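User: Can you predict the 3D structure of MobA/MobL protein? Sequence below.
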Amino acid sequence: MEAIEEGGMAIYHLSVKPVSRGEGRSAAAAAAYRSAGRVHDQTSGQTFDYSRKRGVEQAGIVLPAAAAQRDPAGRDVHWASDREALWNAAERAEKRSNARVAREYELALPHELTKTQRLALVRAFAAEIADRHGVAVDFAIHAPHRAGDERNHHAHLLATTRVIEPGGLGGKAPLEWSDTNRRKAGLGPAKEEILALRARWAVLANEQLLGQGHSIRLDHRSLAARGIEREPGSHLGPAVSGMERRGIETEVRRRLDREALGAAQRRIERAAALGAVEREARALAVSVIDLSSNLAAARRERDRMLSRLPARSLEELQRRGASAGSHPGSIKGPSRDASRAL
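Assistant: Sure. Here are the predicted C-alpha cells for MobA/MobL protein:
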C-alpha cells in the first residue's frame, strides 16, 4: 500500500471490499481491530478486544452533515459516534446469513505528508463518502509496520451499508442497491460510483500535496489507461517485507518472481509477434512496389508493340475489342481492348 515516488508519480492504492457474513466476517470485529479498540458484539455475544494493538495513529467516526438535524422527537444522529453502538446497529439491521454489513476502503497515504496532514486528508475523504451516500464512516490511520516499509502509511475506512438516521439506521444506501434498482431511480451502475470515489481520492490527495509544496502526484487510472506498458506491482505486506529484510527467502517472493518472469516472457512474445507483423508489412510493401514496377514495364512494352503495328492491323484489333463488349469510341490510341487482344 505504499505511496512511493516513481518518476514524479506516487503509487496509487485504493481498494474497496465488502464485509460480508457470507465470508465469515463481522463488522464489529473489523471495527475493533482497525481502531485498536474494544467492541462487544451483542448479536454473537463475542467481545473483540484489540486495545493492546499497536500502530494505530488516529481513529474516529465521521457522520453525514445532512443528517445532523434533529427529528421531530428531538433525536439526532450522534448516537452513531459511539463505535460499539454503531456496529451493533449494523449487525442487528441485517437478517440474512450472507448479508453485507459494511464496506471497507483501504487507502495508501502519501508518506511526504505529516501526521496532521494525513489525518486532515483522511477526514476529508471520509466526509465525502458520508455526505455522498448518507452513511457513517469509521476510519483508522495506521503507521507503517515496524518490520515493513517505513513509507507504508495507510488508512482503513469502514462505512455502513445503511443510511444514518436519528435514533438508528435506515434503509440500504443507494450504493448498495442492485444495478436494476439504481437504474429505476435514474442512477448509473454502482461500479461508476466506485470509479468516481477512486478519482475523488486522487484529487483530494493531490490538492493536499500541492498545498504542502510537493511535486509528487497520484493518478487513479490504470497503467494501461495511462499508456504505460508495465505489469502492475504487487504488495508484499509488512510481515513478508520484514522477513526479507532479515534475509529470509519467502514463498511469496518466489511466487512474485515467477509471476514477474511470466510477465517478462509475455512481453517478449508480444514484441516478437509485433516484429513479425512489421516484417510482413514491409515485405508486402516491397511486393506492391515490385508489382507496380512490373505492371508499368508491361504497359510500356504493350505501347511499344502497338506503336509498331500497321494502321489496318490496329483497326482490326480495335474492332475485335469492340465486339467483345467494349464501348465504341473508348479507344484512343493504344487501348485496354487492344492490350487484351494481344
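The CA atoms of residues 195 and 220 lie 9 Å apart. The mean pLDDT is 80.
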